[in-house]
Specification:
Length: 407
C-alpha cells in the first residue's frame, strides 16, 4: 500500500510538468496545449479540443460594458487580455475576446472624452504615483513599506511556481507598472485601482507560497505563523479609516420635504442647494446644479466654472442679473439652509434678495432641515409682460400657489 501511494504521488507530481511542457511547446504557435496527463510525445500531436467559443464572446461583451461602470477597470482588462494573448495559448480565442471588448467599449470611451473636460489631456506618462520627489529609490521604499513581508512570499511563490504559472505573475505586474508610470485623469490618486487589482492577482502566488511552506516541514510551519500575522495586522490597519469615517442617515418614507419634492416638483427641475454628496433633493430623484465637486472634478469636468456661477447667484446684488443666471442654467428652485449660510465659499450670501423677489414655496420654521427655505424661480413668461429695459425685477407680493410649510 505504501509503495502504491508513493507511485500515485509521483504521478501527480509529474502530471503538471507534462502539462507545462505541452503548453510551452504550443505557446509559440498560438495553438492550444495538449490534454493534461497525456504522454509528451502524443501531446504534441493530439491537441486538446478547443474551449467553448461562447465563453470568450461573453467575456468580451462583459469587458466591453466596463467603461461607463469603471473606466480604469476597463483599461486593466484590456491590458491583461493583450498580455495573455502574447504569453499564452488559445490566441485566436483571446484575440476575438479582445476585439469584441474594443468594439463595444470604444464608443463609450469616445463619448466619455467629449465635451469641455480635461480628459483630452490624458492618459500621459507620470512617474511615481503619489510619491513625493519620486526617485527610483523612494518609489522602491514606498513599495517596501506598503506591502512589507508580502514581497518575500511573492518571490517564494514565483520561485516555486511552474513557468506556465509564472507567466501569469508577470502579467499581473504590468498593473503595478501602470499605476507607477501612467496618469489617466486629473487625479493621480485614482491609480489606486490598478494597485488593488494587482494585489488580488499576486495574492494567488502568496497563498501558494503559504501552502508550500506549510507542507514543507515543521520549520516551514513555524515560518508561516509570523508571516501570516504580519500580513493580517497590515490588513487590520486598513480597517481604521472605515471605523473612523462619519456616517449619516435620512428618513425617506413619510419625510415632509421628500413628499413635497415628489408631489410639487418635476423630475426635470434643477435645484440650487448646498454642496452635499447626498441629501433629500437627490434622494427624491431631483437634479442639483452644483453639489459635491470631487467626483465631477476627478473626471475632468470644469467644476470651477460652476462654482463661479454658484457664487454669483447666491451672492448677487442685482435681481435682474441673478434671474438671468438662473434662467441661463435652467435652475427652477433655490434652496437656502444652514449649510448654505455657513458655506465658506459664500462669504457674502445675499439671502435678502431671494426673500424680496422670489416666491417662498417651502419653509422649515421648526428647523428639521437646518432652517431650510426653498424659493421658486419665476419663468420668463411670468415676468415677460412686466419687464422694461433698465428696470429691476418687481418684488413678489405673495407666495406662489401650493407653498408648503413644515409641520
Amino acid at each position: 500500500m505504501a509503495r502504491k501511494r508513493r507511485r500515485s504521488e509521483a504521478v501527480s507530481a509529474v502530471e503538471p510538468e507534462l502539462q507545462e511542457g505541452a503548453a510551452v511547446a504550443t505557446a509559440g504557435s498560438g495553438d492550444p496545449p495538449a490534454e493534461a496527463g497525456a504522454p509528451s510525445t502524443v501531446a504534441a500531436r493530439r491537441p486538446a479540443p478547443p474551449p467553448p467559443l461562447a465563453g470568450f464572446v461573453l467575456s468580451g461583451l462583459l469587458i466591453g460594458a466596463l467603461p461607463f461602470w469603471n473606466g480604469p477597470v476597463f483599461v486593466v482588462a484590456l491590458l491583461l487580455v493583450a498580455l495573455l494573448f502574447l504569453l499564452y495559448p488559445y490566441r485566436r480565442y483571446v484575440f476575438l475576446m479582445g476585439t469584441i471588448a474594443v468594439i463595444v467599449g470604444l464608443p463609450q470611451i469616445m463619448l466619455w472624452r467629449t465635451g469641455e473636460t480635461e480628459m483630452q489631456n490624458y492618459p500621459r506618462l507620470y512617474w511615481g504615483y503619489t510619491v513625493e520627489n519620486p526617485t527610483v529609490a523612494r518609489v522602491l521604499e514606498y513599495l517596501a513599506f506598503s506591502f512589507g513581508t508580502k514581497w518575500l512570499l511573492i518571490a517564494l511563490g514565483a520561485i516555486l511556481a511552474t513557468w506556465f504559472q509564472r507567466r501569469f505573475l508577470v502579467v499581473s505586474f504590468s498593473l503595478l507598472a501602470l499605476a507607477l508610470a501612467v496618469q489617466f485623469n486629473i487625479e493621480i490618486y485614482s491609480n489606486h485601482k490598478f494597485i488593488h487589482i494587482w494585489i488580488i492577482l499576486v495574492n494567488l502566488a502568496v497563498a501558494y507560497a503559504f501552502v508550500r511552506l506549510w507542507r514543507w516541514s515543521t520549520v516551514g510551519r513555524i515560518l508561516v505563523v509570523p508571516l501570516l500575522v504580519s500580513m493580517t495586522l497590515g490588513g487590520v490597519i486598513d480597517l481604521f479609516p472605515i471605523r473612523n469615517d462619519g456616517h449619516f442617515a435620512y428618513k425617506v418614507q413619510g419625510d415632509l420635504l421628500i413628499n413635497w419634492l415628489l408631489t410639487e416638483t418635476k423630475p426635470t427641475d434643477v435645484f440650487l442647494t448646498h454642496t452635499s454628496v447626498l441629501d433629500r433633493f437627490l434622494l427624491a430623484g431631483r437634479k442639483i446644479f452644483y453639489g459635491h465637486a470631487y467626483y465631477a472634478w476627478s473626471a475632468g469636468y470644469p467644476t470651477q466654472q460652476r462654482l463661479v456661477i454658484y457664487k454669483r447667484i447666491y451672492e448677487g446684488r442685482d435681481p435682474k442679473e441673478v434671474l438671468k443666471l438662473l434662467w441661463d442654467n435652467n435652475i427652477s428652485y433655490v434652496a437656502i439652509d444652514g449649510e448654505v449660510r455657513h458655506n465658506p465659499d459664500l462669504a457674502h450670501l445675499n439671502e435678502a434678495l431671494f426673500k424680496e423677489h422670489f416666491a417662498k414655496v417651502f419653509e422649515d420654521p421648526d428647523g428639521r432641515y437646518y432652517a431650510l427655505t426653498v424659493y421658486k424661480v419665476p419663468t420668463k413668461e411670468e415676468f415677460l409682460d412686466r419687464w422694461l429695459p433698465g428696470e429691476c425685477v418687481p418684488p413678489v407680493s405673495r407666495p406662489a400657489a401650493g407653498a408648503a410649510q413644515s409641520e
